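Could someone model cytidine-5'-triphosphate with this protein?
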Amino acid sequence: MSSNRILLIIGGGIAAYKSLELIRALAKRGVATRCILTNGGSHFVTPLSVSALSGDKCYGDLFSLDDEAEMGHIELSRSADLVVVCPATADLLAKAAGGHANDLASTTLMATDKPVLMVPAMNVRMWEHAATQRNVATLRGDGVDVMEPDTGTMACGEFGPGRLPEVDVIADRIEASLERLTGPKPLKGRHALLTAGPTREPLDPVRYLSNHSSGKQGYAIARALADLGARVTLVSGPVALPAPRGVDVVQVETGRQMLAACEAALPADVFISVAAVADWRPSSPADRKLKLKDEGKGPPALSLTENPDILLTISGMAESRPELVIGFAAETDMVEENAQRKRARKGCDWIVANDVSGDVMGGSENEIALVTEAGVENWPRMGKDAVARQLAERIARKFSGPGKQKIAAE
Ligand code: CTP
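Reply:
Sure, complex below.
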């Protein structure tokens, strides 16, 4: 049970009545709620019900002299650990994505220094509209956590995605966010360096060799380490994922650029090599587009050169080797044996072995065997976020051994 506080912005949609249930559900979990009711929201629920359920004043008007005297809108925006917008209407999403500040809700979203969770609810066509999807992508890119709406029959009779998720699901998400924000920070003062995603090795200016890595696992680990207080540098190949909040992302394309970016980011306490670095690159990429009928020849022969092995290079550094170096092993068979061999060959401390014979590379689950100096641990199949949290906790435990505490840099 948590004892935190959220600021809840209630937008003007039919799902607004569920925000009242949310306030009650959160109160049962020990989370206090202070509310802003938008003008639209006040057509669906009254300030009196909001205030009675939250046990606090219900704020509504940006230009209210009374409210401003009691608690200014800037102070209000920072008075909670987390800002939640529920229901987040198409209009609220658009305003927040566009940086508008013409009422208390939008001004608060602009002024806050706290993380924001948005829970959209609207008609299916409004949700699927290109403008809404663009706004959601912008908000996620800005680090806002936007929940996916449920799919089902809507109040207006249409069917599809756009329904507000169940109140308990929203409360779970809020509680998990609060725990991350206010939970222990055992990695404070530590620097974690990670690689993630695929690399692209150019063949000519328009073609490249690459692989199916989605970057999901690496990004999740970066987020989990940041949640435990680490300063995180994530050197990422091209992926379709937003930068995790509080993580420094360095974008690269090729394996050689990835190695250079890692070297530039050192020193670090821990290095985690999650990227699916292309083992080979075309030996001499053409500086102009290869033509189908170049000099009347057939298809060009593909001559490949080995890429630098980033994990091996960093493991073998004499002076700047991070204290803990962790590699990944993508295997399709003999997972444990291959991982043991890979640990020795790469000179790293731990290997996170995963079986990529199924849909792991694009999917959201992973089955892990962790090979450490102490032996092999087989973890049950779980979501990539859960794998990330468990690994981050293992790393924190490793660093919290006797005599291992480090004084925070600041
Ligand atoms: N790795 C790396 N640089 C490379 C190749 C791999 O840093 N050029 C890292 C990966 O990030 C991963 C580990 O090495 O942490 C193992 O990658 P994997 O593809 O499983 O192994 P390979 O070394 O490529 O060996 P093989 O493909 O023969 O299994």
